[in-house]
Amino acid sequence: MEAVISGLATGFGVALDPFNLFLVLAGCFAGTLIGALPGLGPINGVAILLPIAYGLGFGPESALILLAGIYYGAEYGGRISSILLNVPGDAGAVMTTLDGNPMARNGEAGRALSLSAVASFIGGTFAVVLMSLFAPLLSAFAVTFSPADYVALMVFAFASLASLVGKSTTKTLLGATIGLMLATIGVDANTGVARYTFGIPDILAGIDFLIVVVGLFGMAELLTLVEHQVSGKLKSLPVDKSFVRWSDIALTKWTIARSSVIGFFIGILPGTGASVASAVAYGTEKRLSDSKGTFGHGDMRGLAAPEAANNAAAGGAMVPMLTLGIPGSGTTAILLGALLMFNIQPGPLMFTQRPDVAWGLIASMYIGNVALLVINLPLVGLFARMLTIPQHYLTPLIAILAFIGIYTIVGNPFDLLLITGLGIFGWFLRKMDFSLAPVILGFVLGSLFENNLRRALSISGGDWSILVSDYKSIVLYVLAVLVVALPVYLTRRARRMEGDADRGGLV
Question: Is the model's pTM score more than 0.85?
Answer without folding.
Answer: no
